[in-house]
Amino acid sequence: MRHAFLRPIVFALALAMTACGNDTSTTPTTTTGPTSEIFEGQLQGPGGSQFFSFTVSSAGNASITLASVTTAATPGTSINVPLGLGLGQPLGTDCNLTQQTTTGPGLAPQLTTATNLSPAIYCVKVFDVGNLTVPVNFAVRITHT
Amino acid sequence: MRFILQFQKVSQGFHNKGFFTGRMTRLPLLGLAIALLCTACGNDTSTPTTPTPPPAGPGTETMNAVMAPGGTAVRTFTASAAGTVTVALNGTSPTTVVGLGIGIPGGAFGGCDMTATVNTSGGPGAPQITAPVGAGDFCAGTFDLGTVASGGVVVSVTIVHP
């Protein structure tokens, strides 16, 4: 008798629990903005070059800043040596440049894409334009979508 | 469907035992189920967390630090827009010529890849560095040129940024 009375209550509880088993949590919406990447390396001397590949995930502009050039001899002390700075797409074992400039280090972008880049893999290349006599360390900031 | 059948079976059980009879007795049970359902589900308030963006300029950052021999004293800051940044070494104690620089956060000397540097002991002539910048994260500070004594040197640096 007592058992029979409990059954509907158990059923009601089961129904309530079943109904609540499907709560979907809301994921916060995040707005994705431009991404910054740092490309650091060393040019060994005359004729040296290095490139760095990055992925553009959505159409947008990119800006490239040659931010630092220093020598190993005086760590921390910047030197104002103009270097080649270019943007392109990887081709074989090199970076096929579509835009380039010669610039010394600065904190404002020296290279900005004229049009939006389509989603793809691109590369930034730093190279000697005939000014290097000793190895130099460099740092480049790449901001892209 | 299974629930409906189970409910009917339960109801039949009550009838057979004579405990409840008629539709009126089923209604309170149904009401109880609905009430439980509403009570259990009425309080699911999940509040999405909105990401908080890092604070950004314009502003003035002041750093007072003791720099050890061979060391650096660097501070990072964010420029909210393109503009001009000034970096001033207000003074050193004891008076010592050190490197003062501005750059971007990175893996180089003291975590700051230097863009422009000067050698100075601070004081008159400040700000010693004025640089145009784009919006973004930067760093500025001092580094030892091999002149800092074993007791270190106190440096006072002021950075004004957009």
In the predicted model, the low-confidence regions of chain A spanning at least 5 consecutive residues are: none
Order of helices and strands of chain A: HEEEEEEEE
Give the domain tally of chain A: 1
Please report the number of helical segments of chain B.
2
CATH C-level label of chain A: Mainly Beta
Largest interface: A-B, 42 and 50 residues
> For this structure, what is the CATH class of the largest domain in chain B?
Mainly Beta
Describe the structure.
The complex is a heterodimer of chains A (145) and B (162). Chain A is mainly beta and 145 residues long. Chain A contains one helix and eight strands. In chain A, strands 1-8-3-6 form a four-stranded antiparallel beta sheet, with no helix packed on it. A four-stranded antiparallel beta sheet of chain A has the order 2-7-4-5, with no helix packed on it. In chain A, β4 (83-91) and β5 form a beta hairpin. Helices cover 22% and strands 41% of the residues of chain B. Chain B has two helices and eight strands; from the N terminus they run ααββββββββ. The two termini of chain B are 67 Å apart. The chains are: A mainly beta (145), B alpha+beta (162). Chains A and B meet through α1, β1, β3 and β8 of A and α1, α2, β4, β5 and β6 of B.
TL;DR?
The complex is a heterodimer of chains A (145) and B (162). Chain A is mainly beta and 145 residues long.
Throw out a few tags for this protein:
heterodimer; A: mainly beta; Jelly Rolls; four-stranded antiparallel β-sheet; 1 helix; globular; B: 162 residues; alpha+beta; 2 helices; 22% helix
Q: What is the secondary structure topology, with strand pairs?
A:
The complex is a heterodimer of chains A (145) and B (162).
Chain A: H1 2-19, E1 35-43, E2 49-56, E3 63-71, E4 83-91, E5 94-103, E6 111-112, E7 120-127, E8 136-144
Antiparallel strand pairs in A: 1-8, 2-7, 3-6, 3-8, 4-5, 4-7
Chain B: H1 2-17, H2 23-41, E1 59-67, E2 72-79, E3 83-93, E4 98-105, E5 112-120, E6 129-133, E7 136-143, E8 153-161
Antiparallel strand pairs in B: 1-8, 2-7, 3-6, 3-8, 4-5, 4-7
